[in-house]
Amino acid sequence: MPDRLTSLDLTFLKAESPATPMHVGTVDIFEPPVHGDEGFDYESLVALIRDRIAFVPRYRQRVQQIPGRFAGPVWVDDEEFDITFHVRRSALPRPGTHAQLLELVARIMSRRLDRARPLWEMYLVEGLQGDRFAIIAKSHQALVDGNSTVDIGQVVLDSTAHPRETPTDTWQPEHPPSALELLAGVFADATRHPAAVLELARAEMASLTGSTSVREVLGDVVGSLAAQRHAQESSLHVKTSGQRRFTTVQTDLEDYRTIRAAHGGTVNDVILAVVAGGFRAWMMTRGEGVGPTRSVRAVVPVSIRDDEDDEPTSLGSRVIASTVNLPVGENSPVMRMHQISYQTKVHKDTGRAVSARSLVGIAGFAPTTLHSLAARVATTTVRPIDDVVITNVPGPQFPLYAQGAPMLASYPVVPLMPGQGLSVGVTSYDGKVYYGLNADRTAMPDLAVFAQCLSDALDELLDTTKGSRNRASRGRKKPRSAPKNTQPKKAGS
């Protein structure tokens, strides 16, 4: 029998609306392949996906509802699977600017995926200045669970310029089960896992009727009252529209290491301190009060080990949600970082937190799957009183390639939660730290200002290292494959 969607998967389908698409995305920028005279075009991307999609069979399956909807839907092979529907082609007017690319990303990420087909899309964007191109990918949160399915970005990238050999794909879609077979599967599952089937049935009925328990209703009332008071103080709480605005910031990883060496903590602590400083400056540009007790409640998913003897892998590391109060009311950048380090140290003291070194040591590791897992956790745990979701995933500190084309930059696109105007995704890769800022288009017309505030907040922290900045700049190692002027350090708009 086909695999049944979990109650968590159903949560993502239920939570989706025109104003809150539930997909996670990435924007990867490449330069042409380094070997031979062959370039990278649409046919190259289609051929690459066709060769690698066998590693992620869920990407050729669609959601099939159960007759009567008294049980959860199942994954079935898409008999009409058309790879050219999912892998699409776009172009910017040459020479396409980074700002034009960001506008295209915002429009693509605003659209929901077609539920009648496998829940993913990928776009090749040609025409970028410098003869570069971009790949925009988005996958539904119900699709990537990190166990049976990883993100397709996990399998299309190679650690060398020479693509690895893949076995011949002989996939043939199975005929979808009949209504009688679907019902028989429900009864079989009920016999083996009665509690799971009841939970799925409850979730399915709730999605149809909108009914909730008394406890859930009371919890919503209390939560909404607390959120209403909190939202009055913050412009991060908005009525989410269906349109998005997207921008990026590129910084140097060595700067974060310099700050960490001077003030302690971790690179993750420095990143959160930079975000806190960015929020403080941005709020001040909006005329918002940033008194000494003001903070921003950030949901920050972290990866943990289930057991000390467990080796973390991209499929096995468990991701949980952590709440960090970003002290935007604190005037001193060093004190902001120390306060954040104190909060995050609690997770390290449990002995279960997975180190960045362990994560990036995974063979074939790409950040896309962990961003998807982090977004899944955030979606199910974020509360009305929370202000923003921040996903920070360490990537490999060496170049990755797509069919021989070096990847220069990778920006995550984290979905917005209902009522939130901004999400922040961070990926470190090959000596750089890349911020992807996904925002509600109506609520945050000044997203570029916030991006600039992030860069300024990093500079503010660097200024506290007493001369270390110049020494770090002289010793900074540039990415091996990146051209001299690929992306600005400041906001990419």
TrEMBL record:
GO terms for biological process: biological process involved in interaction with host; glycerol metabolic process; response to hypoxia; response to nitric oxide; triglyceride biosynthetic process. One of its GO terms (cellular component) is plasma membrane. One of its GO terms (molecular function) is diacylglycerol O-acyltransferase activity. Residues 483-493 have a biased composition (Polar residues). Residues 468-481 have a biased composition (Basic residues). Residues 317-461 form the O-acyltransferase WSD1 C-terminal domain. Keywords: Acyltransferase, Glycerol metabolism, Lipid biosynthesis, Lipid metabolism, Transferase. The keyword Kinase does not apply. Its EC number is 2.3.1.20. It catalyses: an acyl-CoA + a 1,2-diacyl-sn-glycerol = a triacyl-sn-glycerol + CoA. It holds the Pfam family WS_DGAT_C. The keyword Secreted does not apply. Residues 5-271 form the O-acyltransferase WSD1-like N-terminal domain. Residues 463-493 are annotated as: Disordered. Pathway: Glycerolipid metabolism; triacylglycerol biosynthesis; Lipid metabolism. InterPro entries: Acyl_transf_WS/DGAT, O-acyltransferase_WSD1-like, O-acyltransferase_WSD1_C, O-acyltransferase_WSD1_N. Belongs to the long-chain O-acyltransferase family. This is Diacylglycerol O-acyltransferase. It comes from Kribbella solani. The lineage of its organism: Bacteria, Bacillati, Actinomycetota, Actinomycetes, Propionibacteriales.
